[in-house]
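Supplementary notes for students who missed Thursday's class. We covered one full example, reproduced here. Read the sequence, then the structure, then the short commentary at the end.
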Amino acid sequence: MQKYMDKDKRMTAREAVEQFVKDGDSFVFANCLYSMPLALSHELIRQRKKNLMVFQQGGIEEIDQLLGGRVIDRLVMAYNFRAGGRRLVTPLDRAMKEERVEVEEMTNHTLLSTMKAGAMGYPFIPVMSGIRSTDVVQKQGFLGDQCFGETIDPFTGDRTLVVKGYNPDFALMHVQRADKAGNGQLWGAMINSKWAALASKKVILSAEEIVDAEVIMSAPHLTIVPSHKVCAVVECPWGAHPTELAGHYDSDTIFRAIFFGSTGAEESMDAWMNEWIFGMKDRQEYIRHYRDLYGDDTLDALKAQPFLSKPADYGFTFTRTWDDEGFSKQLGMNMEQFTNMLKEKGGLING
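Structure (token representation):
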């Protein structure tokens, strides 16, 4: 077990996407609105992945960029930001008009519930029935009857609305810190992070910094994704820019406005994509380009001021049940005696 926990999964974003993402895969953003894994998302675009299906509760720039890069052809969403209101034609508008993307609309609650059911291994899970009469339920998208269903409540006999559990092929996730094995710690707005990460078959994780395992173990309540779910760990400062990340940086509102200003026409959006995604080798080059263009002061002004929480005391006696000679004072016997007792009582299961 210790060897598994110590496995070094560090690699670059390029290596992670090359190794763990296949054309046609389904994936979920295990961040929503906050701490978006945009460095990883840019790598999907840069490598020109195709025909991906994405689950996203609240899209801002990442969905527009994936559509602009022709990466996704199916989208399950509750919300996607629309800059400029109806007067602006968005990348999603263009993709839908050109039939380059199929869309399945859900609510935040029902979309999160599909991940929660998937994470717990349930084929489906009940949701609030009040939306039964809305278009969200009545108008089927590309998932058809593989989205909402009904079952009988065994306690009341009432018909209960349910959603199907899903296990995306992978999740993209960005956190404040992780160890080399992939134990990732996130604080601030969680939204869908826990269930999306646990529902996925594997997680590609980026982190502002890679820390020693002892740091992770000193604050276990912050671990949002365990190492056994993570296939790759990417150390990536500013990996969520221009979204915000507690303890590191604020949202870059002006930079985001420049992007959304480019999305009204395909030509201007292509120019933005060529400059900031296709023209950049990686996130480090992206940040260098930002500093060259806007100045160090502009980027540094986004850096967070310290606001520390009080440490929690996780102390115990830390005495072991079994000493170095294999004797337990609590049980009053050694390991051999304990094993024999279990055999005699039929409590030992040979696996």
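Commentary. The first strand starts at residue 26 and ends at 29. Residues 316-351 form one domain. If anything here is unclear, bring it to office hours.
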